[in-house]
Amino acid sequence: MKIILKYLCQILFFSSCIYASTLQLAISANPSRINPILATDSSSSEIAGYIFNGLVKFNKNSSNIIGDLADEFYFKDDTTLIFKLNPHAKWSDGVEFSADDVLFTYETIISSKVISPYSSDFRFVKYVRVIDRHTIEVRYKKAYFKALEIWMMGILPKHILKDEKNLMNSKFNTHPIGTGAYKLFQLEHSKNIILMANDSYFKGRPKIDKISFHVISDPMTRFLMLKSGELDIGSVEPMQFERQLKNDFFKKFQIYENISFSYTYLGFNLKREKFKNPKVREALSLGIDRDELVKILFFKHAKVCTGPFLPSTKAFNPDVKAPKQNIKRAKQLLKEVGYDEEHPFSFEIATSNSSAIRPYAAQILQYQLKKIGVVVKLRVMEWQAFLNMVVFPRKFDSVLLGWGLSPTPDPYMLWHSDNDKKGGFNFVGYHNKKLDKLIEKSQSIVDREKLYGMWREMFKMIADDNPYLFLYIPSSITAANKKIKHIQPSLSGIWYDYIRWEKVELK
User: Fold this and answer.
1) 471-487 pLDDT, tens per residue?
2) Domains, the chain, with CATH or none
């Protein structure tokens, strides 16, 4: 009997070594709302991604759309989409997921009581209808190029939120219930956020039991924690990669690098008089040496950005080149609108310290623009304060910010005049009637080659107008502890199929 007990104890011990594991991560700011239809900051979106599922998602290389909560989907015709839902999916509180939740999510996101920038994605939906407990019909007003992609939006639980009076300030936003691989266990602002594996996850319980997010605003502190092994996965800046990491680090960590699905830009507040003249915006563009910016900040780990859509997409226009610095022409343009050494053009660049790179980028821009007689003031803020006090209230001259983009771009969300509104992503206030019409026309184009051509036309129009000064596309450099097994790197990063990851930690 003692021998049997001894072997049972050994089995339980080694079992706990394999599965009782914690993934140590860091985020730069507190999440504001862990709710997929309200998450507008990167921290909220990242954490919501572990807790909620959409009906569909991109495959490993972001080249095709595959099922998520939907087992099957198909078009009955150009405007009618059918989803067959997974009958085994459950909410993390044990309640069965059903078609009623999908209908509820749609009705919530289009409600006048909810301010969500994602509501515009659903503007072509005529209705959503429950066919049976596990079947949904979506009818569109007309053919829509994003008919499938909009259903990557995380689905909300009707049984919890059906009587909620004010979702914008709901307790749910900090105590979410989802269908995802993990569920929220602890939320300590400015300290720790802990997710626990969802035992009843319909795709199989994650092998890693716990994800612990350390909320650390200072990028150098995050780097030092990664370097010391306190974090299992983290981003590495080019300067750190090239100059601050030694062989002992690379023995413990695997490096994954690919061009990111993001870009950084300087966006002007076009409601302010000083930026309304296109000559001013052109002068500022010509005052910047983008190649120098990339060289100083990134070494070889970035490329110059030329416009609003990424080079890896069919929307990219290779004929649009980045403006080259032209001090003489920039000064001439400023002089034509009344600025000179005695009356210099001046403005403020606001950015966040959540990125190690952007405060330095702002300083380089300040130095470069001084060469054309422009006086630049800098304001660097904590991320949430930056969003809530500067970006969303539009209390800025200019913002140094970035966008993470889908492989399928949607110009409507960022560039159409309709989204110059509270909660909209067109917070620079850009209006271009010709572009608006082109965007509207493109929304119902299902011929992909024709759509790509229209996107490339938009690319040039936006780049020529300079509502943003497009600066750089960074590479994503990720370091992952070699204890983590089964990582599948792809064009979109390392996180695909993370529920299969394992981390062996002897206790």
Assistant:
1) 999 999 999 999 999 99
2) 17-26+174-258+478-503 (3.40.190.10), 53-158 (3.90.76.10), 262-475 (3.10.105.10)
